[in-house]
Amino acid sequence: MSSAEPPAITTCPILHRDRFIVIVNKPAGILSHPNTNRSTEQAAFEGRYDLETQCFDGPGGKVWLIHRLDQDTSGILLGALDEKTAEKCLLMFEEDAVQKQYLALVRGHPGKEGTWLDHLATSREKGRVRTSVIKGRQPNAELDFQTLAHHSGERLSLLNIHLITGKTHQIRVQASSRQHHLLGDDVYGHFELNRKLRKDLSLKRLFLHAHTLTLKHPASGQRLQVKAPLPPDLASVLDKLGITL
């Protein structure tokens, strides 16, 4: 008689799992974590979530959430499977020892490559989180980008973004403040262009995908790089534009 499958810790595709960590490919529309301890909304990992400890506790065991992605963003998310490993992973993020790379389709042409430095401030209004650029203050948000492709007809650019800091809505706000709005962004985006591309390219959501995570494994110390393939809906948009990765 075959043994029963152990309870799942996530419904997201698992990209890497060992005794210490689990890395998943979070679909767009799924929360990194519930917004309250009593929330029943679907999240990246299974079980009850404690906001203070940042830990899921489900039938498959505990998972400590190490970082977050916006609900509308797809891609790589890291969880730790014990408290000691969680502390090590969080320390690596604090020391900027983890590399996170994103693919973003934006309005216009920001140039071949560059660095964006801004001071970002986040506020809550009527339960909604909003981030804005504050001019004239010391930068607290940084990213590097390289343009992978540019579509001159539609005036769109595909960027590879190396996120150096991790502020709320950082990529979206830094891009929109330079008039390089992320396509499909229904908060900070260019709404007229969103409507056009929804019709022309069937782009129905934010074009932002966390595609690569690189870090030293918290137990072995060896370099670990994990990649998340571009989801079919975003790959279809690039195909319609004639852009290949």
From TrEMBL:
- Where is each Pseudouridine synthase RsuA/RluA-like domain found? 21-176
Origin superkingdom? Bacteria
In terms of InterPro entries, this protein maps to:
PsdUridine_synth_cat_dom_sf (IPR020103), PsdUridine_synth_RluA-like_CS (IPR006224), PsdUridine_synth_RsuA/RluA (IPR006145), RluA_PseudoU_synthase (IPR050188)
State one Pfam family annotation.
PseudoU_synth_2
A single GO molecular function term of this UniProt record: pseudouridine synthase activity
- Which one GO biological process term can you cite for this protein? enzyme-directed rRNA pseudouridine synthesis
Classification via PANTHER family: MITOCHONDRIAL RNA PSEUDOURIDINE SYNTHASE (PTHR21600), RNA PSEUDOURIDYLATE SYNTHASE DOMAIN-CONTAINING PROTEIN 1 (PTHR21600:SF87)
Family the UniProt entry places it in: Belongs to the pseudouridine synthase RluA family.
What's the protein called, per UniProt? Answer: 23S rRNA pseudouridine1911/1915/1917 synthase
